[in-house]
Amino acid sequence: MNQQVTSRFLNSISIAIKREDLIHPFVSGNKFRKLKYNLLQAKTEHFETLLTFGGAFSNHIAAVAFAGKEKGFKTIGIIRGDELGSKIAENPTLTFAQNCGMQLEFISREEYRLKSEASFSEKLKQQFGDFYLIPEGGTNALAIKGCQEILTPEDAEFDYICCSIGTGGTISGIINSALSHQKVLGFPALKGDFLKEEIRNFVQNENWDLITEYHFGGYGKVNEALIGFINQFYMENQIPLDPIYTGKMVFGVIDLIQKNYFPAESKILLIHTGGIQGIQGMNMKFRNKQLPTIDINV
């Protein structure tokens, strides 16, 4: 569903938001898309267990936990930060995952960096037995296949497609299905331009670019300006935005409009990738840092 943003913008530019966050109450946005074909493949190969990776407030961990429970899989989550093991009850995301039946294994940040190495994978198999591996963030070829279904024929009217980026899987699927007259813009939640090479491994089209100025200091970094923007946007449009991904992307697009980045009368489609479940946990962090909180009804 595409929801028109009612605010008026410079140069007769219009914005609509594709509400992927409404696909499913617990497996929303790009997580639904990324898991769709992976779960079908796991069933086809007769796996009984899904294993994946994530951080303290990971949307991916929450989605895999619920989807696994719903589809009859045992789930294992390898969590970054061994100090979190004693704090599950204080963390809404990890509590939700555990209540869905996910087995949580907490490891140090140093060990977590080794997660892609063959020796680490072998160690996990010795510990947990056979499992279907879903990468951190869910990005692989099957995830991209699912994300290619985000755009529909009705979206042909848009000139620009904008999407936040974590691991690059969602935008890769969008790039592959975008039409030749459309420009796809990605807004990384991490510092740096390194994701371009990752994305090039999955795409054929050239009508895309990354806008790297709206990470707000890096992954998970937030300031009062962003929180205020998210609250104001919700008040005006009744569309909740998360502070890690979509909130930064929407902030960036509107800032670029004000800087005359887009031609007059451009039609822009923003992809809402979900992530709303993480707001409760992020608000806890904000209170500890004496920052304002995100005030939305979800």
Automatic annotation (TrEMBL):
Pfam families: PALP (PF00291). Coiled coil: none annotated. Residues 14-274 form the Tryptophan synthase beta chain-like PALP domain. The keyword Lipid biosynthesis does not apply. SUPFAM superfamilies: Tryptophan synthase beta subunit-like PLP-dependent enzymes (SSF53686). Its cofactor is pyridoxal 5'-phosphate. InterPro entries: ACCD_DCysDesulf (IPR027278), TrpB-like_PALP (IPR001926), TrpB-like_PALP_sf (IPR036052). Keywords: Pyridoxal phosphate. The keyword Ligase does not apply. It comes from the Bacteria. Belongs to the ACC deaminase/D-cysteine desulfhydrase family. This is Pyridoxal-phosphate dependent enzyme.
